[in-house]
Please model this.
Amino acid sequence: MADDPRQDLLPGTLDMLVLKTLSVGSLHGYAIAQHIERTSNDVFRVEQGSLYPALERLLGAGHVAAKWGTSPTGRRARYYTITASGRRRLGQELSAYDAMLAAIGRVLGRA
Amino acid sequence: MAWYHGVLHKLRTLARESEYERGVAEEFAHHGELDRRNAGGEPSPRRFGNSTYYKEEARRMTWLASLDVLRQDVRYAWRSLARSPGFTATVIVTLALGLGVNGALFSVLDRMFVRPPAGVQSPSDLRRVWMDVNAAWTDRLMIPAVSYPYYEALRDATNGSAALTFYLQSRAYRGRDRTPPGMQVTYATAGYFGVLGVRARLGRFFGPDEDVMGRGAQVAVLSHAYWERAFAGDTAVIGQTLEVGLRPFTIIGVAGEGFRGTDAQAMDVFLPLASFVGRRQRADREWWQTTATYGAKVIVRPGAGFDEGAFQARANTFLRRWEQADDPVYGDSLVAAQLGPIVEARGPAVMSRDQVFASRLGGVAVIVLLIALANVVNLLFARSVSRQREIAVRLALGISRWRLVRLVTTETVLLATVAGGVGLLVAAWGGQVLRSQLMPTVAWAESALDGRVVAFTMAVAVIAGIVAGAVPAIQATNPRFVALRDTTAGASKRHRAIQTTFVAAQAAFSVVLVVAGSLMVRSLQNVLAINVGVDTDRLVFANVSFEPGEAPADSVRGKVSLRLAQQLALDPRIEGVARAQSPPMQGYSYAGHYLDNDSSRSFGQNAGSQVAVSRDYFAVTGLQFVRGRGFSGDDATVAPDEIVVNTRMAQVYWPGLDPVGQCLRLGRATAPCHRVVGVVGESSRMNVIEEPTSQFYVPLGTRGNEGHYGVALLVRTRPGARTAVATSIRSLLKAEYPMGYPSVRMMTENLESHYQSWRTAARLFGAFSVLALVVALVGVYSAVSYAVGRRVKEFGVRMALGARARDVINQVVGEGLITVLAGVAAGVVAALMVGPLLASMLFGVAPRDVSALLFAACTMLLVAGAASALPAWRAARVDPVTALRSD
Model:
């Protein structure tokens, strides 16, 4: 696996990436995964086994809402939408992430 | 409110498990399909992954995961309970009794003290009126009954800031058919439904023009329930005629569903107040022009700007003004209005006997539940100790302690839930019994078992299950006491201490209940022992009632009564016949009289009441002459100027003098003398329990007493002829008055209604204390036999060393007694503390009666001794060889 350029996500960042993705608009599960993989230039791999538990977790916390709709291919699909509290949460996570990045950078002497 | 949406989502998932699963399956399939297509149709198992595992991961984020664990626990608990059916049954029965008793009491107390009347709009805004009566002629009273003139005063005092309604309740029959239950009728002012906020289901309610005093319209509104019961919910009922007695009323409406009036008694029919015909208190006035209340009540719906204090002050001024205008000489009453909640039992009046009784029984029910709970904890405890090895193995294999505690608690909650279900049966049955015992005359609107009772009982069951399970579970899983090796000595000391505590608690609670039970039984005995002054045995009395307007003139009835009395006197089954204005304890009149120039009013509550009786009244009722003689003349020709007084009246009116020959003037101070010719012993005037009252007897139909013709017949039958004589009197009366309703009753039957509440108290409290003792018996038995079982080896050693069976039995029984002794002592202390709560329900016995305490303590010790006897006997039969070889 060492020659596979693609990476698993940093622990705890998936929720933030999902929220960020949904802040653009409603998407179904596969589209979320696709969007994250594409915008990371295929660096990140989003498995079903971590995506769907994360979505369920975000639903339970009220950060996203879900609704069944029809996909462009004409199939029934569950569309996820970010809620107001989800946007607040995204803001918090982003600033925490920035603070952490800055701190790591300082420790590594790259700031 | 994000968490709120989240919780909603989780609840939805929990409630629709299959829908959730279908959704996840579809979503995963969709995902996989898109994935495959984008990968060029080539299957990519690594990317595809193990979807079952992924689904599990997602499911762990929902509450379904917890549900899965719970299901597992329940399944496990169920299996382990099914393995020990004896234990399971004992626990369920014990808890079901405790829960059922509480459910039953809750159903009564909830209706009595908490729940506002059904079908009424915002009932918490409504106010009920009480009258605080402080007059010379009576003890101070706080009653929810209001007379019509007072109602008018109250209405004027609102200044239009509130709406009032005045209503009274009575029972009626349709036509001449007097088969119970008849109809419960409310006569109400036209504002009644508006004040209560009740809507009509059909038709309309009566208006003010139909409720003008003196000319009320004969229109009727049915309750929804009565409409369905008596008219099968027929919508064509409007316009039909409803006979109330013999008076035809036109049905104009049906009230909204659920509404059954504002009191415990469920109402069937509502009529305009003005159509009520009350017995007049004064010949020159209509019923609504005097201060007789007819049990009528007033309810207020405050409007904007209603000030309770200002209203009361104004009302009291108006009331006082009315009193003085009504009776300028004796208008000395200080009547004041008080407002209280719509639920009558929560009002300012002193709690009625049945209310006190019900609330105290509520306490008893809680104690019964605590006893049951203590017993169950003990049983669970013994069980958890015997499962120690299993628990130790599980802990060693890495199950978390919390999970284990939850597992054990699940088991008890499961048990308690089943017990709650069984308890509901007990509650439904017990609730009916309680209602009929506490308030036999009330027809309740709701059934004894409803949603609130079910919710209450099941909630208590779950709490009981958690409490009962948590104590032994935490104890049993405590790592300090859990060992893979059976260390009988180490942990058992602590276990026994806990068991002893719970057995002692059961004994203490039982002692409290037995004390209460024996106090009630003693009170009943004391009440039954009261001498009512009249020889009640074989005494039968008879009277006739009529539909309004059909009664013959009293003078005619008096003549018939005399003829019947003469006819009955010839009957060989009859010892004696007398006539009276009213039979003993069935009524008296209270007319002013003068002693020289003193008005009877100056005697206040000691003033004599009078009854007009025939010559033979004293012989027939068994009233004994202390001095003098009875009336002269024969039964038909009375000696008009004679009176007989009782000993109390002689003491009050002529202290230190010879009462015989004294003069009493009836009606006016200038009336001619009635001479006292005899003095008889005291007898109860209206109640079995009452202070001695001054009473005197005048001959029937004498001066100043012309109204009383003695229409009531009193008969003393010969032994064994009571029922037969009653039957012949009834047919005699029926033949004489084809339109009348004869009532022939035994004096003992009449007294029974006075004893009834005392019997109920003795019966219910007695039953609860027996129940407590039985549960305590099981508790002590199981604790002692458990202890004996653990000590088989010890007994074996002792027997091997030469101990006799008697020594072992004495030791075991002695230990059993010592266990409960502390509990008995605590129970006695508790009984001393709570005893006074029962004071108002006792008669002739102190709430801290020493003999009751001793009795309870001895009974409990006796029960404990009996409960230890069987295990002791088993201990004494231990075979030393087997005992030493075991384990």
